[in-house]
Amino acid sequence: xxxxxxxxxxxxxxxxxxxxxxxxxxxxxxxxxxxxxxxxxxxxxxxxxxxxxxxxxxxxxxxxxxxxxxxxxxxxxxxxxxxxxxxxxxxxxxxxxxxxxxxxxxxxxxxxxxxxxxxxxxxxxxxxx
Length: 129
What we know:
Blueprint: E1 2-5, E2 8-12, E3 27-32, E4 38-42, E5 45-49, E6 55-60, E7 66-73, E8 77-83, E9 88-93, E10 98-104, H1 112-115, E11 116-118, E12 124-126
Antiparallel strand pairs: 1-2, 3-4, 4-5, 5-6, 7-8, 8-9, 9-10, 11-12
């Protein structure tokens, strides 16, 4: 991962090419928050890294699942989409280190991302399909 300013690489962060179980890794989302921390997804999970390259929060997906979406919700929460059977959106309170809920993809295959919505207050809602 790179931050480039004025055409010059200002900051980098790397993940191992292979996870602990030898699964090939790849980057997904990466969002620079206003506090300088970056919320990111990788094939085997998600995390938050600080400007000092210290991993501040980490989520490892269970074997057989992948994470390709990680989005910040303000400065203290993260939403990820975990692909697998079943696929689901998961919501985490980062300061507390706890999950706050999840939304499962329905059995007929409605796109999970189309069913999720956000209020301006940061509250989540699940739209019926």
